[in-house]
Structures are given as C-alpha cells and as structure tokens.
Amino acid sequence: MPGISAYGAYVPRYRLGAETDGWNSAGQRSVANFDEDSVSMAVAAAIDCLNGREREEIDGLLFATTTPPYAEKQCASIIATALDLRRDIFTADITDVLRAGTTALKSALDSVAAGSAKNVLMVASDNRQGPPKSEAERNSGDGAVAFIISEDAVIAEQAGSYTITENMMDTWRSAGDQFVRSWEDRFAIEEGLERIIGEAISGFMEKEGVSVKDVTKLALYSPDARRHGQLARHLGFQPEQVQDPLFGRMGNTGAAFPLMLLAGALEDGSPDQLLLTVAYGDGSDVLGFRTTSKIGERGQGLGVSGFLDSGQVLDSYETYAKWRNVWLTDSSSRRPDPQSPSVTALWRESDQNIKFHGGVCNQCGYVQYPPQRVCVECQSRDDSTPIRLSDKLGTVFTYSLDYLAGTVDTPLAVVVVDYEPGGRVLCMMTDREVGEVQIGMPVQMSFRKLRVVNGIHNYYWKAVPLRRAA
Predict the structure, then answer these.
(1) Are residues 103 and 244 in the same domain?
(2) What is the pTM of this model?
(3) How does 170-200 read in b/e, with b if 16+ C-beta sit within 10 Å?
(4) Which of 62, 164, 336, 451 is most buried (most C-beta within 10 Å)?
C-alpha cells in the first residue's frame, strides 16, 4: 500500500507580528524574504524532507503552487536540478488552483500504486499576496512542505480519497494581478467553503465506511482562524480532533496549507491513527492516511514545528512592503539597470551554480569550488569527482558588509564559507541580522533568487544562519 515515507517543511525565518511597527495585528504570519519565492522555498522543504536519504532513489518530482515564478516554463525541473536529482525522472508542475497540493499528492500516490515509480517527491509551496493591510494579507503566510511517497518504510499509509470538482468564483487572481481577489464573504463561505467541503467529507466517510469519531486529526483548509473553527464545528469534529491551523503563527500558505497541517499532525502522531487532510479550491480533495508503527521515524529535518520555533519578527512593515514592491518609496541612489544574464552561461554553469557542485581531488582529497581542472594542492590534472556542497554545513571564515551596494537588503553581507568536508566559497549571506554576522558563525546554504531581468529568474546559493528550533 503506498503512503508517506518521509516529510519535511520550510517556513521562512521572518514574521510580521505584534512587535512590527505598522503591522497593527497581535498575530504573526510568516513572510518570505526579498530573494525567496515558491521555487526557493520548495527546494528548502525538499532538503528538509530528503535529509539523510539517498537522492538517487527519487523517481519523480511533482511541484504544486499557485504562485509559480514562470508562466511558461517548468519550475519542477529547476527544483530537481537544485536538489541534484537524477536526470531520468519525471517532473510536473500542478498549479492555478488552491487544491493543487492535494492534487499533486494524490497523483504521486497513484503513480506509486500503479508501479510507474517507486519513490516520488511531492512539494507544495506558495507565497500569495493580499492587498496591503487587508484581511487576506493578515491571514496569509508563506511556506512549503514536501513528502516522499513510496511503498517502503511507510509511516502513514493511504486510507482512501474523495474529490469534488465544481466551478466556484470565490477567490481568484487573473494574469497580471499582483494581489488575490475575492467575492462577497457570505456567498464565498456558505455556498463555497462550507457546502463543498461538507459534501466532500461526507462523500469520503460514505465511500470509506468511517465516521467523524474515527478521525484522529483533521488537517482542514480555511481562509482564516474564525471560519476554521466554525467549519470544524459545523462538520461535527471536536476541538481535540482538529489540527492546529497555525493562524497567528504562520498563516494560510495557499496550496501548501492543508499539507503543512498534515505534516504537523505526523510530527505528533502515533501508530494506527486516521489523519484527514482537506483542501479547497474549485472543489475539494479529501485524502486519508493511516499511521503505521514507523511513525516515530521522522528523520533529521526540522519539520513545521522546528522552522516555526526558529523565526524572527521584522521591526517594520515598511521592510516587508519594500521586499514585495508594494510601496514605491525607494530613496537609494539610482544605478544602471542590471544586464540580462546569459541563458547559454546559465545552462553551461548549471552544475556549479544550480546543483552547487564542487570538485574533490581523487589524489589528495582537496575540495575546490568552483571545480578546476588542476588541483591547487597537488597539481594533479583532470582527476576530480563532483561533490555536492548545497547540503553541507559550514562556518564563516571572514566577511564584509557593503553599505553602498545596490541591494534591497542593505548592507550586502558577503562571506567566505569553509565547509565541514573541506572547500571554501565566496557568496552572499541572507536572512541575517547585521549584529549576528561574525567569524566562526555556523551557516548552511539556501537556494535563492539573485535577480529577475528580462523575465529570467537567476537563482544561486547563498549562506544563511544555521536554523535551529528554539
């Protein structure tokens, strides 16, 4: 029986919260940094999921989002390359609807059940934007979640599914829209959310022969905390059966939201529990999972709770608005527009820039980045093996803070990182506070966006402070 054999998540470091000047809300929500998007967060969640596992075993990758950086180009291929997966795997983007995450998860389960793949990595990620200071902005959040679907070492077996598809114009975003739009609340909730999810859960119960009392945890989609509680009560679930929706800590993460709640339920799960995850958007998906005796083998990743516990509140809403280009208040000096990156060079240097491969000398073991034909230690020629540095920990050897560089996040922190297996790289540092940057600081690598020029999203790896749960 196919099911979930591993899971991981990613929540950005920064939050808007009560301490944020200009936010005017007691609750927190997660916010992606200026150099993060749905692709970079998906890579981070997948790394958390793959921690300690062989990446060569992955046979496919499905990416679900409503906020892809490209309208015409597959994002799953970028993620697969950044994760250094095999080339002979199938990849697909599933997008344009809020229940894209559960659609991708069900597709992965079906692929494994059909025998077309043994291990499928499924990732959902979103950073949807509501109008400034609106309820949509206040209740939304940014984040990502990843699952490995397999028939081996399963921690939660598939326990049925049910889907309703219905054309419902309650929440939408047209091409070119920056912000999510919505229709009148009463119609959207009564004729949309409550009716459709109620029918979907009733259909699941009837199809699978279970009742509300058989469900241990319900990972339920909802646009905000108040309606989440109302909907759960309306469906007949007791408070202890409902997974914490994390409003006031993270917010609604779009296509990733019900699956991040499922990952949270797995963190606290015990054997033989029935977990339901319910998504909504032009219909509803209900997926059931039955936990196994291996539920405690969660791996080495931080998971949802670990990333939530390692966050930091922004000082000012204006900083967030600048990250999102909401306010045109940039008073920095004007600089020439950046040159368009060479697509040919991006392709040619993919191994060192996207896979982040260095080279380890087969004669003396010296690690170099970028890889060189001649080893600087023993001068052997053309005798090295690629080594992936993206998942290696390191320390800051030295650093510089540039207050004049044309960057959104002044000052620009440039660091020299020494890696634990050897090797050294010069790169930017992000997600950092100026006062914490110091020599000897432990760091890890994070896949980020350098810039967007002529519609080309130029990604690279940056150093970030090592995330640990508080």
Answers:
(1) yes
(2) 0.95
(3) bbebeeeeebbebeeeeebbeebbbebbeeb
(4) 62
